[in-house]
Amino acid sequence: DKGTGSGTIVAPKTKTVTKRPSLYRVLLLNDDYTPMEFVVHVLERFFQKGREEATQIMLHVHHHGVGECGVFTYEIAETKVTQVMDFARKHQHPLQCVMEKK
Ligand code: TYC
What we know:
The chain is an alpha+beta fold. Helix content is about 40%, strand content about 25%. The chain has helices spanning about 35-45, 50-65, 75-90; strands at about 1-5, 10, 25-30, 65-75, 95-100. Strands 4-3-5 form a three-stranded antiparallel sheet. The longest helix is centred in the C-terminal third of the chain and has 17 residues, at about 75-90.
């Protein structure tokens, strides 16, 4: 190790390499059977959307087949998908929720 000239021994610098976490979109898929109100409720309950935005997202999915509920790190996205799928199954709706890497 280098000295400072004062007789003190100083540890070599170590560079910290930080990496930003990968992000994942959580998507809802359209189907012919899940009630619109149920999808709005899912967006309010699990994605903290207000009634207006939740309705916009639901209608986007209804018309385009797929839509974004939010963007999260892997573990949060996975948890959202599981929560929505469990909730839809409990209510016997075929609603599908998936995640994809951004
Ligand atoms: N297409 C459904 C209906 O007409 C509504 C719906 C919207 C279902 C969004 C799923 O992710 C969905 N009742």
